[in-house]
Amino acid sequence: xxxxxxxxxxxxxxxxxxxxxxxxxxxxxxESGMADYSLATYDFVFISDAKEKLIALGAFLSNNYEYKIxxxxxxxxxxxxxxxxxxxxxxxxxxMYWGLGLYCKGYEFDCKLDxxxxxxxxxxxxxxxxxxxxxxxxxxxxxxxxxxxxxxxAIIHFSTAIRINPNDPNSWYSRAxxxxxxxxxKTARRDYxxxxxxxxxxxxxxxxxxxxxxxxxxxxxxxxxxxxxIALEPGNEMAYFNRGNSKLNLKNSKGACEDWQKAKxxxxxxxxxxxxxxxxxxxxxxxxxxxxxx
Length: 294
Description:
- By secondary structure, the chain is an alpha+beta fold.
- The protein has a domain at 201-294: Tetratricopeptide repeat domain (Serine Threonine Protein Phosphatase 5, Tetratricopeptide repeat, Alpha Horseshoe), CATH 1.25.40.
- It contains 14 helices and seven strands.
- It has helices at residues 8-13, 15-31, 51-65, 92-108, 135-147, 151-164, 169-181, 185-198, 203-215, 219-232, 237-249, 253-265, 271-278, 281-293; strands spanning 38-40, 43-48, 68-69, 73-75, 78-84, 88-90, 112-117.
- Strands 2, 3, 4, 5 and 7 form a five-stranded antiparallel beta sheet that branches.
- Helix 8 packs antiparallel against helix 9.
């Protein structure tokens, strides 16, 4: 995408720094005497090269996140947007995912998260209600946030549900899927593992863990997960389709074509494109010529 203020290269290169920044903010909060999971309201700053981009981001955060948004102002060579988030229980992970959620959302609008902070009184702390509210309450709040695109807060509410009931595989699985969307595949993998430990036949979790492994380049391990899903659900078209993709990455064209064909027979019409690209006589002859030229 051309003429961006916050490019994909910048987004990737600064992603780790954003995580480290959250840890630093958390440690300063901890040093001030604030306890884990006490509630806080953070203010934040976004910057961009155009007022209109910040207006669009601010409208989204106001309408979907219910954040308080100020009017963008000019600052030297850029524009700046400030606002206040809704309160949430803070620990190191919650703060990191809240920050990553804003970082990723800002990128969608070509705006860069430039910082955040919160005041805190160690002598006057409040905490979320986890004594009278059950895990279902926080699970539903997490889903509401997820459906509005607030991925950071979705993770925070799933984490509170897990804090109340660590034995529900759905909370672990749901949190894993959101972590994947926030590009933290290693911690997502651990959540998938926990969900499957609690529910060994949880095919959605096994399937998604396979995708997670695929994205990490662990194709043989992904195939093992897809094969497990197929053993549990022989009619799972996505498991066949994904396994075909993994086999292709391992240069097993024959096995890939067999899996895509099975996926198509089960209803995966989208498999036809892969079949035409890699399994037709024409594509096979083309690959043979390319190999011969080498």
